[in-house]
Amino acid sequence: PYLELTVMGARGESDADLLLWGLMELGRAVSVSGDSAGGAALLEEALMMSKELKDREREASIRIHLGFIHGEQQRPEPYAEHTRRAVELYEELGDEEGLCFGLCNLGGAYLNLDELDEAARCYDRAMQFADPLPNARGLILHGLSSIALIRGDVEEGLELVERSAAIFRETDNLHAIAYNASITAARLRELG
Q1: Do residues 122 and 106 touch, judged by C-beta distance below 8 A?
Q2: Within the chain, where are the H helices?
Q3: Among 24, 109, 142, 154, which residue is least crowded by beta carbons within 10 Å?
Q4: How far, CA to CA in Å, does 101 sit from each of 27, 128, 138?
Q5: In b/e form, how buried is each residue of 104-114, taking b as 16+ CB within 10 angstroms?
Q6: Which of 142, 83, 156, 85 shows the shortest CA–CA distance to 113?
Q7: Cβ(126)–Cβ(144) under 8 Å?
Q8: How far is CA 168 from CA 11, 46, 113, 181, 187, in A?
Q9: First to last CA, the chain
Q10: Using CA atoms, how far apart are residues 142 and 179, in angstroms rounded to an integer?
Q11: 20-25: long-range contacts (C-beta < 8 A, 24 or more apart)?
Q12: pLDDT tens track, the chain, 192 positions
């Protein structure tokens, strides 16, 4: 209710900055709660506002979240499109952390499109910025493990999965550990 009231209040007061923030946060909350279509609609409105306000930092963040929603909906083309644009924005802004995580996400989008070479290029490029970002290193290794498993190199894939999981254990990222395990199990099932 708080975010909904914030959005309503910002609309009433014509407070564009507060409205943009409220739409972003409400869109994320709605999508995480299971209403991805409702979340996407709010984020699309926020995206239009961020462009009008020329707020490239928020535009990049919104695009990352819209990409996630499209990915969850099994819509790999808009997932890649939004994420690719977010990466461009992070690059223009000089935001190395955003660029690193954006490249990790773009690698995932390319995996969904079965463009393994493009995915590998994204992960390799992300590694250039990942030294101070252990969770990014874990995501990169996880992405590279998926590529190896898809290509049938089970030994390399499992070694990369274990390295990724070790990083996530060090950072207490239990969500990433569980996600890693479920994706790896699915990839192994595909291999037979």
Answers
A1: yes
A2: 2-13, 16-32, 36-52, 56-72, 76-93, 96-112, 116-127, 134-150, 154-170, 174-191
A3: 154
A4: 20, 11, 11
A5: bbbbbbbbbee
A6: 83
A7: no
A8: 41, 32, 26, 12, 19
A9: 47
A10: 10
A11: 20/46, 20/49, 20/50, 20/53, 20/55, 20/58, 23/49, 24/58, 24/61, 24/62, 24/65
A12: 778 888 888 888 888 999 999 999 999 999 999 999 999 999 999 999 999 999 999 999 999 999 999 999 999 999 999 999 999 999 999 999 999 999 999 999 999 999 999 999 999 999 999 999 999 999 999 999 999 999 999 999 999 999 999 999 999 999 999 988 999 999 899 888
Q: Which amino acid is at 76?
A: P
Q: How far apart are CA 137 and CA 127, in angstroms?
A: 7
Q: Which of 42, 22, 39 is nearest to 31 (CA)?
A: 39
Give pTM, 2 decimals: 0.90
pLDDT digits (tens, 9 = 90+) for 60-80: 999 999 999 999 999 999 999
- Per-residue pLDDT tens over the stretch 135-170: 999 999 999 999 999 999 999 999 999 999 999 999
> How far is the C-alpha of 160 from the C-alpha of 67, rounded, in Å?
25
